[in-house]
Design a protein that fits this description.
With about 375 residues, this protein is α/β, with parallel strands linked by helices. Helices cover about 45% and strands about 15% of the residues. It contains 16 helices and 13 strands. The protein has helices at about 10-15, 20-25, 60-75, 85-95, 95-100, 120-135, 145-155, 180-190, 210-220, 240-250, 265, 285-290, 305-310, 325-335, 335-355, 355-380, and strands spanning about 5-10, 30-35, 45-50, 80-85, 105-110, 140-145, 160-165, 195-200, 230-235, 255-260, 275, 295-300, 315-320. Strands 3-2-1-4-5-6-7 form a 7-stranded parallel sheet, sandwiched between helices. Strands 10-9-8-11-12-13 form a 6-stranded parallel sheet, with helices on both faces. Strand 8, helix 9 (about 210-220) and strand 9 (about 230-235) form a beta-alpha-beta unit. Helix 3 (about 60-75) packs across helix 4, helix 9 (about 210-220) packs across helix 14 (about 325-335) and helix 15 runs parallel beside helix 16 (about 355-380). About 45% of the residues are buried.
């Protein structure tokens, strides 16, 4: 039975984004293995390896993870290895060098290069040479937005093939509008006033996600829009800092810090607007889920948001330093329900046509099928 190995920094990555594609391999009669940090039990998985990959490249555990990956790859003779996340991609491609000589095909999905338009000189100095070096050990580099694809092709990465796929896909049956009555019912369940203006953002609390921008925006509109409420789902290193900022700005009563949530598909449809404030994104799932749920999106302009949001058609984009303009866009949306509905409808149409799990599975199946047969072909030619 042929085998595929999926690798990433943490196992949650597969639970959140890749189960439909792992299921597809099982349906093709393949054995599916996963290597990542964590003890989560994953469906559609024949073998799971808990290896100590760390997000920081300077952690000594990464050397142990590299050695374990080499052993796993050597012992299992995989036909395809598909790696994700920056450290998962680095360690796996290094560990699979000998396997590639035996015909194993190595795929890497870049979920947003750390070097991109607007990135710091440090990011370019560190991450660009690493990716360029590792490209020689990559049979297919998969990008998920136009900017990364153009960058990789323009810089002539020494990779077998560069492909663009529309992200990891969104389940448009799970994430969908609730309708007027359903929205009212959800607000009753969660304890929100029917007349409240609810804004939603799900993201880890860290420097990149920049929740402070949203808190400053809310402080600007609090007097003109006292019914506004900002729902922030997630945890992380900057959470307490954001709580303190909300107090300082006098908006604590207008912000709900929701923590980690597994009911995003219920929270989104009861809201009025999705907001997104990150400096850097590849192709943000939180925005796609919001659009699938029929919400307009107000976001900071970056390559991932720009890929999804068409200004005045399904949302708005503003400069990262212009909190006042962001606030004005929110006020515009708050005062115009028809505009919100039109933008939200257009956003869901876009997601269904290009970014649904069904569409992305079609793209990935076509790509995978090519590599599923290529090893047998090369081995036959070698005879």
């Amino acid at each position: 039975m042929p085998k595929i190995l999926y690798c990433a920094t943490v196992d949650y990555h597969f639970s959140a984004f890749h189960l439909p594609y792992m299921k597809w391999f099982k349906e093709q009669g393949w054995e599916v293995h996963v290597a990542a940090a964590g003890k989560m039990t994953l469906p559609f998985t024949d073998r799971k390896f808990n290896i100590p990959i760390q997000r920081s490249p300077f952690k000594p555990d990464n050397l142990t993870a590299y050695r374990e990956l080499k052993t796993i790859i050597h012992e299992n003779d995989y036909q395809i290895i598909h790696c994700h996340t920056p450290l998962g991609g680095v360690l796996t491609r290094l560990a699979a060098r000998e396997a590639r000589k035996r015909g194993t095909k190595v795929l890497y999905t870049a979920h947003g290069f750390h070097f991109c338009k607007g990135s710091s000189a440090v990011n370019w100095a560190v991450y660009y040479p690493i990716e360029r070096f590792l490209s020689r050990y990559t049979d297919c580099l998969i990008t998920i937005n136009d900017e990364d694809y153009l960058l990789a092709t323009k810089h002539n990465f020494n990779v077998g093939e560069i492909k663009q796929i529309h992200g990891v896909g969104v389940d448009t049956e799970r994430f969908k509008p609730a309708g007027l009555k359903g929205k009212e019912e959800l607000r009753k369940i969660y304890g929100y006033d029917p007349e409240a203006f609810l804004m939603f953002y799900a993201a880890e609390f860290n420097k990149n996600k920049n929740q402070q921008h949203l808190l400053k925006m809310l402080a600007m509109i609090k007097d003109e829009l006292p019914e506004a409420c900002l729902l922030l789902a997630g945890e992380g290193s900057s959470l307490e800092e954001c709580r303190k900022l909300a107090e300082q700005l006098g908006i604590s009563g207008m912000v709900d810090f929701l923590g980690l949530r597994k009911d995003i598909d219920q929270l989104l449809p009861m809201c009025d607007v999705s907001v997104a404030s990150s400096f850097r994104e590849g192709l943000p799932v939180n925005v796609m889920e919001a659009m699938a749920s029929g919400l307009p999106v107000a976001a900071i302009d970056n390559r991932g948001h720009k890929e999804l949001i068409q200004p005045n058609k399904n949302g708005f984009l503003t400069d990262k330093d212009n909190v006042e303009l962001f606030a004005n866009k929110i006020l515009l949306l708050a005062k115009n329900k028809e505009l919100r509905n039109n933008l939200g409808t257009n956003g869901r149409t876009l997601i269904k046509s290009k970014y649904s799990v069904h569409r992305v599975l079609e793209e990935k199946a076509q790509l995978y099928t090519k590599f599923m047969t290529s090893r047998e072909a090369s081995q036959w030619e070698a005879r």
